[in-house]
């Protein structure tokens, strides 16, 4: 199994290093991907200690408990996840590789 594209049912969004995104930290506009290098907790869904959101290197820290965002380091509620980037939505809605998904999801023609 590859990690380029997957789905996180906890946050209801696409994940993987093939998914362009913006850091989930409030006010940060750095572009990242939703790969393992950027996930709080170091694993999809955040593992046992992280929130499972995605952050740039300025907003993730290596701690004794793992790679965590500043809210998880402080045992606070997670950030609100940022929406998908327009470029990712456009790709899914137009690229031939997503045609079957569009048909099965009823997205064709929208």
Structure, described:
With 110 residues, this protein is an alpha+beta fold. It has one domain (6-104). The chain has three helices and five strands, in the order E-E-E-E-E-H-H-H. The chain has helices at residues 70-73, 86-94, 99-104; strands at residues 6-8, 13-22, 31-34, 60-63, 66-69. It has a three-stranded antiparallel beta sheet, with no helix packed on it. Strands 4-5 form a two-stranded antiparallel sheet. A hairpin with an 8-residue loop joins strand 2 (13-22) and strand 3. The termini are far apart.
Order of helices and strands: EEEEEHHH
pLDDT < 50 runs, ≥5 residues = none
Helix fraction bin: 10-25%
Described by strand count, sense and barrel closure, the largest sheet is: 3 strands, antiparallel
Backbone CA Rg = 15 Å
Total helices: the number is 3
SS content category: alpha+beta
Kindly state the number of beta strands.
Answer: 5
Shape: elongated
Instruction: Report the average pLDDT across residues.
Output: 92
Report the sheet-strand fraction: 15-25%
How many structural domains can be distinguished in the coordinates?
1
Strand order of the largest sheet: 1-2-3
Distance between the termini: 31 Å
């Amino acid at each position: 199994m590859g990690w380029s594209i997957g789905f996180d049912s906890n946050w209801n969004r696409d994940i993987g290093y093939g998914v362009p995104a913006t850091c989930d930290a409030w006010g940060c506009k750095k572009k990242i991907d939703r790969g393992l290098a950027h996930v709080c907790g170091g694993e999809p869904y955040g593992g046992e200690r992280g929130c499972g959101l995605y952050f740039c290197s300025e907003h993730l820290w290596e701690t004794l408990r793992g790679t965590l965002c500043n809210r998880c380091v402080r045992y606070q509620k997670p950030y609100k996840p940022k929406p998908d980037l327009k470029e990712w939505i456009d790709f899914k809605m137009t690229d031939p590789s997503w045609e079957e998904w569009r048909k099965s999801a009823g997205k064709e023609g929208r």
